[in-house]
UniProtKB/TrEMBL annotation:
PANTHER family tied to this protein: FIDO DOMAIN-CONTAINING PROTEIN, FIDO DOMAIN-CONTAINING PROTEIN DDB_G0283145
UniProt-listed PROSITE patterns: FIDO
Source lineage: Bacteria, Pseudomonadati, Pseudomonadota, Gammaproteobacteria, Orbales
A Pfam entry, by short name: Fic
Protein name per the record: Fic family protein
Range of residues in the leader sequence: none
Domain Fido residues, every copy: 179-333
């Protein structure tokens, strides 16, 4: 992947006349007229309304960005970022769309928490997609079944997925903790146990400098900082994250979503581990989002969307490195990913609500249905859709985040009402959906 080098303002001033530059100052903002924060790689192809020389236009744009940028020092590196109007708009959209609607009362609700149950299985999606992004080859269906049934992983790909699932649960568990090197190392250890390469060690920073970031052609596109600088860099990163950038403790305000994205970026840039940097970085992003009150992100998957367009993800990193460590490029990329992940969650939830509403209309005359809890209704919906489907307490417990005793009680209640059939003589009680389930429901 090759990009055109973005000349710095110092480089530009050497080749353009200052008088010409003064004439165009103020005519160019941080973004173009469409609100896009373009790197030189794309900027150089864009025409401007007054047909101003492209080098002058770039220099004026760089000055505008410099005037509104904020600086962040991590070790010897000075990063910057801007929050142009289009980015402010997107941050507002994220805040608005991720406000707490899951679990609120709903006309179609059985017990007031149906929406949360409908999306609970999505916790597995990020674990699966994050592992697939790093090369895990197991299909989503097989991986989800492994997690639902609490089956032991059979290969490295399944180990990666299970590790990521445990890591997401750990991130939620630790959301009230401050960031520390110990926390980061514990995340890495969970992510990589039994699934690590490059002679790296689980839960330890790399000790060598033979780690490079390569593109799909195996070309080296980035060389991380030296190993002997890692501890200091990671200490600075922890200090940055733990500082409350609320204009009281921090010198300026940083929106929590921006800070979460920057945490993600800095782990990738510092590359403290021989393997597992991506998995750890994305887990820390979720950790900070949930720490900041964005609990909705327990149910979204950014890795799935990154996996669908890995080149754009890599480009966002390259743009930052090439253009004087301006992280705004990565912010725009990730905020677009976040907004699309929220939209996917909304679409999924609306689809599930429609399916549930349709199922409820079909069984509204059933006397038994009115006595069942929401979990049992949702189990029956799945059972009616797929005759022969099997259910066990363990998978119900995981999917609906209830105890196994509660799950057993739910399934036993459905069996007692003749809606599910108990099969086999195994110690694990297995229930199957009969082909005449709807008839049985409507007859009672």
């Amino acid at each position: 992947m090759r990009i055109s080098h973005a000349k710095s303002l110092k480089e530009m001033i050497k080749v353009i006349h200052s008088i010409d530059l003064i004439k165009v100052l103020g005519k160019f903002k941080e973004t173009d007229v469409k609100g896009r924060y373009l790197h030189w790689n794309d900027f150089k192809y864009k025409k401007n309304d007054e047909d101003i020389d492209i080098d002058l236009a770039w220099a004026a744009t760089k000055i505008s960005r410099l005037q509104s940028s904020k600086k962040i020092n991590i070790g010897e590196y000075q990063f910057s970022f801007c929050v142009p109007d289009s980015l402010q708009r997107d941050l507002h959209t994220i805040d608005k769309k991720s406000s707490g609607y899951i679990g609120t009362n709903n006309p179609e609700s059985m017990d007031g928490v149906n929406n949360k149950y409908l999306v609970h299985s999505l916790i597995m999606e990020e674990a699966i997609s994050s592992a697939q992004l790093e090369g895990a080859s197991t299909t989503r269906r097989i991986a989800k079944k492994m997690l639902e049934l609490d089956r032991k992983p059979k290969n490295k790909s399944e180990i990666m997925i299970l590790n990521n699932y445990l890591l997401m649960k750990k991130a939620l568990e630790m959301k009230n903790e401050s960031l520390s090197i110990e926390l980061i190392l514990s995340f890495h250890e969970i992510a990589t146990t039994g699934a690590i390469e490059n002679n790296a060690v689980c839960g330890e920073f790399r000790q060598t400098d033979d780690i490079y970031v390569r593109n799909h052609l195996q070309e080296v596109i980035y060389t991380p900082p030296k190993a002997d600088k890692l501890y200091d860099l990671m200490s600075d990163l922890c200090n940055f994250v733990n500082t409350r950038h609320d204009c009281e403790e921090g010198e300026f305000f940083i929106h929590p979503v921006i800070k979460a994205i920057l945490l993600h970026f800095f782990i990738g840039f510092i590359h403290p581990f021989g393997d597992g940097n991506g998995r750890t970085a994305r887990a820390l992003f979720y950790w900070f989002m949930m720490k900041s009150g964005y609990w909705l992100f327990e149910y979204t998957s950014i890795s799935k969307l990154i996996k669908n367009a890995p080149i754009q993800y890599a480009k966002a990193y390259l743009y930052v490195e090439d253009d004087e460590l301006d992280t705004t490029y990565f912010l725009y990329h990730q905020i677009d990913i976040i907004m699309r992940s929220i939209d996917e969650l909304n679409n999924y939830l609306h689809r599930k609500q429609r399916e549930l509403a349709y199922f409820l209309t079909r069984i509204k005359n059933s006397k038994i249905a009115s006595k069942l809890n929401f979990r049992q209704i949702d189990i029956l919906k799945k059972a009616a859709k797929e005759p022969g489907r099997q259910f066990i307490a363990k998978s119900i417990s995981i999917e609906y985040s209830v105890s196994e005793n509660t799950a057993r009680s739910d399934l036993k209640g459905l069996e007692d009402n003749g809606l599910l059939l108990l099969i086999g003589n195994s110690k694990v009680r297995t229930y199957i959906s009969p082909s005449d389930l709807l008839d049985n429901l409507l007859d009672n």
